[in-house]
Write a structure and sequence with these properties.
Layout: E1 2-8, H1 12-27, E2 30-32, E3 41-46, H2 51-65, E4 69-70, E5 73-74, E6 89-94, H3 95-100, H4 103-107, E7 113-115, H5 123-128, E8 137-138, E9 160-164, E10 166-167, H6 178-182, E11 186-187, H7 190-202, E12 207-211, H8 228-236, E13 243-246, H9 256-262, E14 268-273, H10 281-286, H11 293-306, E15 311-318, H12 325-336, E16 342-347, H13 365-387, E17 394-399, E18 404-406, E19 418-421, E20 436-444, E21 449-455
Parallel strand pairs: 1-2, 1-3, 3-6, 6-7, 7-8, 9-12, 12-13, 13-14, 14-15, 15-16, 19-21
Antiparallel strand pairs: 4-5, 10-11, 17-18, 17-20, 18-19, 20-21
């Protein structure tokens, strides 16, 4: 019996790649296990987007290396504790090897095989081929994207799953290395995605999270009229009670027509994730963003007016090269206006291979952290106020655990949750995990909601 364990780091897009690898391995008679100490093969699927992600990846690789055996002895470098295992092959996949090519082989000799973002679908072939110094790195230009026939083993709860509708990116954000890591933007065909959605729903999916580097540019490369609105329409037509959630929407691709068509479908969550990064025009231009401050403000206004009850999430970067105190205060003022329910704030990380890498990192680390803290504290007050508008309302929730659920406005992993209160033997059976229920909201705080189940 061949056993394999896999650790997936980073974003949901990386997670889907991990699920494809697991599906291919299982189809090749590998047994998937959770305990790394008893795995013959260990795979770490890495993220390399920013410095913190790279550090986490390297630390995880070194930890997994401690489970390796060579001639009956442990060979991994010590990371502060001794771990025993039976691992014979350690594989590093994903963004880290793709970004740094041959550099990793010298610094991580414990690794037997490096697989980039363009070759993860060859995991079985590469594992079973005899490794040698010339063939243990597979880092070709990424052109692959899976289809609905590709084996895939869902690693999340089966009721809330991700569907990768496109891969790569054609945007030129000056701070981002994703186009070099993931390749050119490439969309899957509508019918192929719909077939996968249908399979997932048949297997119990109640929430389909559509993901890509830029979901709103879906279909643009196909040049046959395919777009996100047509895809959503086709998925919505599938029979069943389920949600469709749209993540990673690039602002300039969201036209009024697209907004109208997407949110005309009842199965689409009243939720949208739009990473705007900043609001100051000079900083936006330096970031390589195509939109201006007035475009962002108009888009938010249009979305709020056209889609009642919409929950908005965004991502922001503070401490970008050249960001002055005045620039930051402008961003702070925009956030204070209360446009977004959820906000993720990142401090600028100087990344090799990006257009702004050679620019002087003019904002001290201490100032970056202070700005991030101020922005997050301000957003906490905004989020708490916006959350309070749900008080007393009855909302549909997707049950995640015995007493935990999520509303349409709460995406998995990154947003808050809804706690179900008042459950007892006298009140009847608890809502079933993986089904929808109705909860009357009785309490709100900064991130989470609480309420009583009124329909199970």
């Amino acid at each position: 019996m061949k056993t394999v364990g896999l650790i997936s780091l980073g974003c949901p897009k990386n997670l889907v790649d991990s699920e494809v690898m697991l599906g291919l391995l299982e189809a090749a008679d590998y047994t998937i296990i959770q305990d790394p100490s008893v795995a013959d093969v260990l795979i770490v699927n890495t993220c390399a987007f920013i410095g913190d992600a790279r550090e986490e990846a390297v630390n995880t690789i070194l930890e997994m290396a401690q489970f390796k055996q060579s001639a009956g002895r442990q060979v991994g470098r010590s990371a502060g504790r001794k771990l025993k295992g039976k691992c014979k092959k350690l594989v590093v996949a994903g963004c880290l090897p793709q970004r740094y090519k041959g550099e990793l082989a010298k610094s991580l000799p414990e690794v037997d095989l490096f697989i980039g973002t363009g070759d993860y679908h060859r995991i079985v072939e590469l594992l079973e081929s005899h490794p040698n110094p010339e063939t243990h790195k597979r880092l070709s230009t990424p052109t692959y994207i899976h289809d609905h026939k590709t084996p895939r083993k869902i690693a999340t709860a089966k009721h809330a799953v991700y569907i990768k509708i496109a891969e790569g990116c054609f945007h030129g954000c000056s701070f981002c290395a994703i186009p070099k890591i993931r390749g050119k933007f490439r969309s899957r065909k509508i019918d192929d995605i719909v077939s996968e959605a249908r399979q997932l729903i048949k297997n119990g999916a109640k929430e389909l999270n559509l993901i890509a580097q830029d979901t709103t540019s879906y279909g643009r490369d196909l040049k046959d009229g395919t777009d996100l609105a047509k895809l959503v329409k086709k998925i919505s037509a599938i029979k069943g009670d389920f949600w469709i959630r749209i993540m990673y929407a690039y602002p300039t691709s969201l036209t009024d027509r697209t907004i109208d068509e997407i949110f005309s479908h009842k199965k689409v969550c009243r939720y949208l994730d739009i990473p705007i990064q900043h609001i100051n025009d000079r900083i936006l231009k330096s970031m390589g963003r195509r939109e201006k401050s007035q475009d962002i403000k108009r888009l938010v206004s249009v979305l709020r007016s056209k889609v009642p009850g919409l929950t908005l999430r965004t991502s922001l970067i503070v401490g970008f090269p050249g960001e002055t105190k005045s620039d930051f205060e402008e961003l702070l003022g925009f956030v204070r206006e209360g446009h977004f329910d959820h906000v993720g704030v990142f401090t600028y990380s100087k990344e090799e291979g990006t257009p702004v890498f050679k620019l002087r990192d003019s904002v001290p680390k201490r100032v970056k952290e202070e700005r991030r803290k101020r922005l997050m504290e301000l957003q906490m007050a905004v989020s708490k106020k916006l959350n309070s508008t749900w008080l007393g309302k009855k909302v549909k929730v997707l049950v995640e655990g015995e007493k935990v659920a999520r509303t349409q406005g709460q995406a998995p992993e990154i947003d808050g949750v809804t706690y179900i209160r008042g459950l007892s033997p006298k009140s009847g059976p608890a809502p079933v995990v993986g089904t929808f229920a109705t909860v009357k909201i009785t309490h709100t705080d900064v991130y989470d909601l609480s309420g009583k189940a009124v329909d199970r």
